[in-house]
Amino acid sequence: MKLNRREFLLLTTGLVAGCKTANEVGGSARTINAGSASNFSRDGVYTNFRDDGFFLIRRDGKLFVLSAICTHRNCKLIAEPDKSFYCKCHDSTFDPNGHVTEGPAKIDLPVLPSFTNEHGELIVTVAAT
Ligand code: FES
User: The whole model's pTM is what?
Assistant: First the structure.
């Protein structure tokens, strides 16, 4: 079978994308029990789980989980006093919602899946890196 340049690129791009998807599916996402959700009842950024790859954020009564891993090259972020996030590796910055405010990062921080179980504990799913 002879492929032209466009067909070759489409095929190889699809293969690479397929490999990545297979790795992600085969990779081990971790679930982390962050303990009682009532421990995070005050508005603010909780950095307790930074080393596990996420920040817990309570704002206006809502609790959500934001990745603590820079989308540029996977360095751990630092939570700043103004509730924004800073990457010391190459100086990317993110606003309190995880949106890029300064590159080189171009992709916003993902909100990670979480739920509260029947015991009132917050369970967070962190993708393997
Ligand atoms: S790893 Fe964060 S800016 Fe490069």
Answer: 0.75
